[in-house]
């Protein structure tokens, strides 16, 4: 059995699936090359990323399983916790039973994919409402986040539709990545750890006014901290104007 490694990209994972079907690769474990941990009973086997092979596998998932299954896999891939073996087994089962794969919740790996996909989707949904953009001196609107999961691609798609005429940057400080939109298209790229942006002169006043409004509408007697934590995770707040001193 093999300890399969790949470059950590989603396309790389799809190439692992391709290698199983067309090259007879039988993984004992699947890990990104960066996070590989050796095991005594397995030999490391690296699967190179080939985008044509990845496209073939993704098309097969959509055609032979379902578009929902493809979305589940993409979202599960974005999860912070490593679930590559769950995803691999999910795909293999899907090619056997088709769109019924999502009804096999008695199987731990199907449930694992669903849980990760839901967690990612839920965090992305919350952040789509809690992202706070600030105007920079360059006229670009900037937002910083530190999500548990890698939801930056989902947020980029969301705000491309809703802020389509405005250049913006969404900066994932936890992963040192940013989605940069120029008014037409966006790209996701690595950014330096110490990158900073200078805000427009009026931005500080706007943030003070927003903070004052937030405090003025708060009814102290009806504050429910437990409910707040459920609807607004604490790690979101350090990036939100309302909670800055």
What's the helix and strand layout?
Blueprint: E1 2-6, H1 10-23, E2 27-32, E3 43-46, H2 51-65, H3 67-78, H4 84-97, H5 108-130, E4 134-135, E5 141-145, H6 152-162, E6 168-172, E7 177-181, E8 186-190, H7 203-216, H8 225-231, H9 234-237
Parallel strand pairs: 1-2, 1-3, 5-6
Antiparallel strand pairs: 4-5, 6-7, 7-8
List keywords for this structure.
245 residues; 2 domains; 3-stranded parallel sheet; alpha/beta
How would you characterize the overall build of this protein?
Helices cover 47% and strands 15% of the residues. The chain starts with a strand and ends in an 8-residue tail after the last helix. The mean pLDDT is 89. The protein is an alpha/beta fold. It contains 9 helices and 8 strands. It has a 5-stranded mixed beta sheet, with helices on one face. The chain has 2 domains: 2-122, no CATH class; 131-243, no CATH class. Helix 3 (67-78) packs antiparallel against helix 4 (84-97) and helix 3 crosses helix 5 (108-130).
